[in-house]
Structure formats: structure tokens, C-alpha cells
Amino acid sequence: MNISYAIEGRHITKKMKGFFLDIDNLKIPKGFATALIGENGAGKTTLLNILAGIRLDYKGDLTFFGQYSDEEKEDNGTVKNRIGYTGTGKYYLPQWTVKDIENISKLMFESFSEEKFHRYCDELAIFANGRIDMKKPNSSFSDGMKTKLMLAGVLARDTDLLILDEPASPLDPLMRDKLCQLISEYIQNGNGEKSVFFSTHNISDMENITDYAIIMENGSIVEQGFVEDLKEKYIVIKGDATDTEAAGKILYTISSNPYGFEGVCLSENLEKLAGMKVTKEIPTLSQICVAVMKKNTRIVMR
Amino acid sequence: MQLKQNSGVPIYQQIADSFRTDILAGKYEQGEFLPSIRGLAKDLKISVITTMKAYEQLAEEGLVTAAQGKGFYVNAQDSEMIKEQHLRKVEDSLTSAIAAAKIAGLSGEELKEMLAALLEMDEQ
Question: Which GO terms describe its molecular function (chain B) (predicted)?
Fold first, then answer.
């Protein structure tokens, strides 16, 4: 498989009070949807802010679209015109009306299309009666509607990379499904040239469109890879109580009760389970993420 | 195409199986392109990497060829050769079934009965 990258990063570090972001090697594959997953406080938003250019106070090298350095991204408008970003609620100022959002977006981004913006406002049912209210201030929208409005704003432009910070969190289940559809359409229209990088806690909602997953813990990447490869690397194992103790020494993670155990095993250790009566299942991305996070967390699990 | 989430068969495998059946049944012409990987992913509501892996498997089997930047097209199918390949697969599988039957202490008659029962189940 010939892969090139929308973003590459080397030795990205940022020291903050009680927190150290330290990303040795970051690769966001071009033409795919990449999910950034991790516990609260793992450093996901810090990383996304660095990539989106919201934070510039970090050390390390970034390359965008295989050719632009981070400095060039900041100086050269064409790079930022190719990147769309949505954050967690504070992107558009509260007092801005829909008209302000439209005007400012037009001023800031060459490719912003009012027609497309209106179309997405309709498609995402942002206005209750189906008619766009230009005077409505951003502060009067609910969190979910604010996210929809940001998505409409970003999809109204012609971009090659979307950086979305927790887009699914404030959305209802139907709209999460729609979000997956929007991401899928975006990737398809790009024909291998457009990429999406999003952070999420709602792994199972986003699982079926996720191509590549990056799992962060404590400021660093602890696992990453194409989902199909991860699904071969980890295997879900279930077994009887009699084998719990022996399996515990082999499995990557395990949780047990008086009746048996369930856990995740690295494929390379699978043959060590020979002789035990266990069943194997292909893990979901969600199960893989929980196992990896459990292995690296400081939360006390019982 | 019916994709089952919890069948134990990976989704990419199910997709590859479905296209393999169609290709071998002659539903695709020689040189015809399969649906684009990203288009198929969108239509099936699955990830791009999954469809990609399905197509790569078909390419490994020699059923399709990847054309740089254009997608995957269907190869000329030499039906004799494919039949031959499958015959060999049947032979291999039966050989390993015989070996397993010996370990389990199954007689030849019992093994034949089991095969007959399985065939009957498959037909239903």
C-alpha cells in the first residue's frame, strides 16, 4: 500500500503545568479518516490545537500536505485555506449572528460559498422552521446546533483536510450517523486527496468510518495503526473460571468474575493459550481502544 | 451484499467473498473496473481501509489488478485454472479432515456420514 501523509510531525513537545505533550512521530495518512482517541486530559485537544495553528508555542517539526512546514502554513494563506477546523463550541464568538459568521468566513477563506453554507444549514436542519434566520446570534444555539453550524461553515469551503475536535460529543445519535455520512462523502469526493482527522470519545459511533486510529495516553501516542491491522494484532478472548489465573499471565488485559474471564490477547501470544478452552472474537475498535487505554491508564480499574 | 457485523468473518473477507463469487460467475467483464474503494466504502457505510483490504486480497488471488490511481479492474478469468485451484483446495481440506478424524478415532464410514450430513445442511 502506497501511503502519503496529510500531516507528519516529529518530536512535537509542549510543556505545561503538570502535563507534558511528547509526540515522537505523528502521521496522518492522506485520503483516509483518522480518529484520535484517549482519556480526558491525554492531550488530544492540545495536539489538535497545535495542528490547527491555534497554539504555536510548541517545539518540533510539522509538515503539511507533504511540502509545507508549520511556518509556511502560518505565512502562506493557501495552506490554511486547505484546512478546515471545528472546535468545542468556542470557535465562532457568542455575539456573532449567522450573518456575521457568513461574512467573516467569506472574508477569511477564499473558497467559502454562501450557497453551500445555506445548503448545509438546510441539510443539517439547523433552523427549526427550515428558514435560515440570519439575525440569530451564535449564543442562542444549543451545543449540538453550534457544532452543526461549525460543520456547515467548514463544509461550505473547498478544503483538503478537516481537523475536528470532538465533533460527535454534543450531537444526537441520528446526527452522529449523519456526521459519519458527511465524513464519508468528503473522503469519497477527495478521491484519495482529502483527509479527516478527528478526536472522539464516541468510538463505537465513529467506528465504521475510521480507517486509522491514534490512541494517546498521558501526552504520548501509545498505539496507532490502520484499523484492519489493529484488528489482527489484538484478539478478544473469553474463557472459563478455571483458566482465569493462567490466562491472566498471558493476556494483554483481562477482567474476570466468578464464572469466567474476558480479555484481549496480542495475536503473537495466542499460541500460549493452547490447552485452555477459550473462544476468540475479532475485536471492535472500541474494545481495542479500551484495552490499550486500560493498559496505560492511571485510573484504578476494578 | 449482506454484511454481518458479528459473524466472526471479518468484514473485508465478506466483501472479498462476495466480489469473488460475482467475478467467478462472470458478472464482471474482463477489464471492467470494480466500484471505487472510497465509493464502495461510502455506499456500504464502512471504512475505506476495509474495502481496500478486500480488493487487495482479490488482487493477491489474481482475480483483479490494481491500476495506479484508477482502481481495480477484473482480470481475464481462466476458468480451467480456477477450477483446478479449487479442486486442489478441496483435496487439501479433505486430507486435513482425514488426519483430524484419525486423531479423534473416527472411522472412514463415520467421516463419510459426517460429510453427507454437512452437505445436506449446506443445501438447506
Answer: DNA binding; DNA-binding transcription factor activity
Task: Specify which residues A198 forms β-bridges with.
Answer: A35, A164
Q: How far is C-alpha B90 from the geometric centre of its chain's CA atoms? A: 14
The CA-to-CA distance between both ends of chain B, in Å, stands at 20
Chain A residue with CA closest to B43: the answer is: A184
Query: Domain extents for chain A?
Result: 5-225, 230-296
Would you call A209 and B39 a contact, using CB atoms and an 8 Å cutoff? Answer: no
pLDDT classification of A89: cutoffs 50, 70, 90? low
Cell of B81: 485454472
Best residue in B33, B36, B49 to probe A by mutation, most A CBs within 10 Å? B49
Separation between Cα atoms, residue B72 and residue A93, nearest integer Å: 47
Rounded to whole angstroms, the maximal C-alpha distance in chain A is 70
Tens of pLDDT along B89-110? 899 999 999 999 999 899 999 9
The CATH class of A5-225 is alpha beta
Determine whether the interchain pair A1/B56 forms a contact, defined as Cβ–Cβ distance below 8 Å: yes
DSSP 8-state symbol, A157: S
Asked if the interface predicted TM-score (ipTM) of this complex is over 0.85, the answer is no
